[in-house]
Amino acid sequence: MSKRNIKIAIPLILIIGLGILTFIRWNAWFGNPEEPAYTTGKKINRLTLTLGNNGEYSRAFSWVFGEEVGEGILEITEMGSSDTTSIPATSEVCISRSGKSAYYRAFVDQLSHGSTYSYRVKNGEFVSEWHQFSTLADSAKNEFSFLYFGDIQDSDSSELTRKLMNEIYDQNKGTQFVLLGGDFIERPMDQYYNMAYEGLGVMATEVPILAVTGNHEYLKGITRKIDSRYAHAFPYYLQSKVGDNHLFTFTYGNAQFFLLDSNREFWNLSTQRDWLKKKLSESKAKWKIVVLHHPIYSLRGDFNNLFVKHYFRPVIEEAKVDLVLQAHEHGYARKTSFNENGEACTPLYTVSYFSEKAYFQDFCGDYQRWGTANRYYQKISIDNDTLVFRTYTDQHKLYDEVRLQKEGNSTLAFDLATDIPEEVIVPEWFRNVKGEKKTKKYEKSIQEWKERKKAK
Ligand SMILES: [Fe+2]
């Protein structure tokens, strides 16, 4: 074949190959299952307590009621006070592909420190129950804890999720807030929002819930489009988003949190990178924690999430972020970084999931500890210069523990889980859903990881 013909043939083969791949993967990349038609009744539903846009002493409240905008009220009272404040809510109709819902939101700022508040919401004669929440005491500003859950998306196990969530909440009553790592819903559909709230149970109304965006919150397409209900459920985004990027930062005690929207196309990620760089440079917080859905170091292949890695990793590492909480790949893994003396240090990168779904893992990304056998959740405790990161299984068994210690300008990491056996097996869900061939492939991948780990 002449050189000229080769020059024509190669691009042609590539175009045909890309065409075939696009045809095969069309549904996975661009397809959206239809949302079943629904109506939204006149009933207070999906009541959510979250943070407002002014730090730890602000709160936002969102709920759904009917299909038209109307008058909604938040009533709030500080325990021990005889005054109840009525705050008018803002309402907006969210129209989805197959129905509509009126979302309500109300904000309160400058709450008292170390107080307990009761609140309820009203739409005409419809009134919610009273719920309570507490604010951070001045004495606890440098000493508090919060919970983190990777994907919690449910397709049919919300009853079990609710049971587990209630158990976790009972065991962690002092927790200040809950962070969700994206994929709150299975798909942008009314039924899955209901399921997500069934799973969250009482926590949704008693402890502030903060969520980053996951790919399941988006409608797929050449350009992804976030489901409009999401930002109304977590209304801090309505003020904080940058263009179409759902970004949010908040301070809590001596820590600052930076929530990214890793689901966007690469041309949006540069905007997010600039935002993150600026916010990190302005931060005076002792502890800096980044939360995003897609892992910077993928568990499932070295070529995954390359744009996310390209844009965010240098900023995170240069700004000495302490902890990076991630999700999406339905496996558990954590890794520390290493300084020039070979000592383990920050950033501490972790990936976790709380969904029933457990994916095939390639054991990529140089993570030091893995878990594939359970759903997992994290409790992160800050005490002045010390941060302890603990991972629990869905049986509430301690599975992983790392202590971060600030010493001068550096933050060292100490692995406290060396005596806890690593549980790396093909999970039951994977075996049942993915079948024998994929299970065998997974078993091989696990075996190879064990051999690599032994050889280290
Ligand atoms: Fe995801």
Molecular structure report:
- The chain has 456 residues and is α+β, with helices and mostly antiparallel strands.
- It has nine helices and 25 strands.
- Helix 7 packs parallel to helix 8.
- The longest helix has 28 residues.
- The radius of gyration is 23 Å and the shape is globular.
- The termini are far apart.
- Fe (ii) ion (FE2) binds next to loops.
How many DSSP-defined strands?
A: 25
**Strand arrangement in the largest pleated sheet:** 12-11-10-22-23-24-25
CATH superfamily caption of the largest domain: Metallo-dependent phosphatases
Query: What integer value in Å does the Rg equal?
Result: 23 Å
Distance between the termini: 49 Å
Give a list of the ligands: fe (ii) ion
**Quaternary:** single chain
Determine the number of helices (DSSP H or I, runs of at least 4 residues): 9
Fraction of residues in β-strands: 25-35%
Domain unit count: 2
What would the CATH topology of the largest domain be?
Answer: Purple Acid Phosphatase, chain A, domain 2
CATH architecture of the largest domain: 4-Layer Sandwich
Helix content: 25-40%
CATH class call of the largest domain: Alpha Beta
Content-based structural category: alpha+beta
Average pLDDT for all residues: 94
- The coarse silhouette is globular
Provide the low-confidence segments as ranges.
Answer: none
Largest sheet: 7 strands, mixed
In a nutshell, what does this entry contain?
With 456 residues, the protein is α+β, with helices and mostly antiparallel strands. It is built from nine helices and 25 strands. The site of fe (ii) ion (FE2) has 7 residues, from loops.
